[in-house]
Design goal:
The structure holds two protein chains of two kinds. By secondary structure, chain A is mainly α. Chain A has seven helices and no strands. Helix content of chain A is 77%, strand content 0%. Helix content of chain B is 78%, strand content 0%. Classes of the chains: A mainly alpha, B mainly alpha. Chains A and B meet through helix 3, helix 4, helix 5 and helix 7 of A and helix 4, helix 5 and helix 8 of B.
């Protein structure tokens, strides 16, 4: 089945229509998706700001980054679960939406960026605790992450205006 | 702050005409009528919300002893403060623009009034109470007190968020 038809089918399953037609389920899921932002993206942003030398400059990078990434694990499961449910209820409408597509690309890039950081730079963080701060490669990753996550929020908010 | 809404609507001496002229001011009209004006301002509002609640949650978790335990409480509070304040400026200025673009939608909205009550209480609590509890390290206080203060802070701020979300669903 082509992807678009699959999205249409998904949106019209009984599971999806039950969520859409419920007075409180859809608002609850959408509200949770938005209010989990600070518990997921917000914590990543704080870690990125530390890497860029803009926040928590009195604390070591090797301490700040892991502790806020740990906190982001509270929010991301909620984000992906509620985001998945929101997609199911609007799959057909989301499919052709340029902001939804851009959001997915940004999410993918943010994932790749985070994986590369984890593999290449995370193990070296303990060495950056001198006054000079993080190396340019880490700052680039942090700036890229910051831009991508802001882009995800902007696209996520804007796509809703086109439904 | 929350008493202002009914007064705006009911009083003969109301600010309604002023509000109307502000909402017809060219920059506000541009936001309201251009294709991406409202989504852009709403996006600023969400980015601000993300940053504001992230810093509040971090501080509350530390106060309650549930996270960031290797950070000194007062030191953490000092380091988060500029970001909390900056985020408050961002959410309130973008929120004001959203309000001014369609004041009629918000003045009659019950969730909006509730949101303003939560907002006023959250701000008072944050700068009046929470600041005092996080100004010095908390070893001397019994921990249940800290947990209660942290829970109140989270309830008030997430109350602002949920009431704000409800504007779209409840009249």
């Amino acid at each position: 089945m082509p992807l678009f038809e699959w999205c249409q089918w998904l949106q019209h399953t009984r599971f999806a229509t039950a969520i859409t037609e419920s007075d409180w389920l859809f608002p609850l899921i959408e509200g949770s998706h938005i209010l989990a932002l600070p518990l997921s993206v917000g914590m990543i942003v704080i870690a990125d700001l530390r890497l860029l030398g803009l926040a928590f400059c009195g604390e070591a990078t090797g301490k700040v980054v892991p502790s806020f990434l740990r906190l982001s694990r509270i929010g991301f499961p909620v984000m992906f679960l509620t985001g998945g449910l929101l997609f199911i209820t609007q799959a057909g409408k989301a499919y052709g939406n340029p902001f939804f597509r851009t959001k997915l690309i940004f999410l993918l890039l943010a994932g790749i960026n985070a994986a590369l950081y984890q593999k290449l730079l995370y193990p070296k963080m303990a060495d950056w605790d001198s006054a000079r701060g993080a190396p340019p490669s880490a700052k680039f990753c942090a700036a890229f992450s910051l831009a991508l996550w802001i882009g995800v929020i902007v696209c996520g908010r804007t796509m809703a205006y086109q439904f | 702050m929350f008493a202002a809404a009914p007064w705006l609507i009911n009083s003969d001496m109301s600010l309604l005409p002023l509000l109307e002229s502000v909402s017809n001011w060219a920059p506000i009209v541009l936001i309201r009528d251009s294709k991406y004006g409202m989504p852009a301002v709403q996006s600023f509002h969400l980015v601000g919300l993300t940053m504001l609640l992230a810093t509040v949650v971090a501080l509350d978790l530390r106060l309650a002893g549930l996270g960031l335990r290797d950070y000194g409480l007062s030191r953490l509070a000092r380091q988060l403060k500029p970001w909390t304040v900056g985020a408050i400026v961002l959410v309130m200025s973008s929120g004001l623009l959203i309000f001014l673009a369609t004041p009629g939608k918000y003045l009659d909205s019950h969730p909006f009034r509730l949101k303003m009550v939560f907002l006023g209480s959250a701000l008072l609590f944050h700068f009046g109470v929470l600041r005092r509890f996080t100004a010095a390290d908390s070893m001397a206080r019994p921990w249940p007190v800290n947990v209660v203060v942290a829970c109140l802070s989270l309830t008030l701020w997430f109350g602002v968020g949920w009431a704000g979300r409800a504007i779209a669903f409840i009249p």
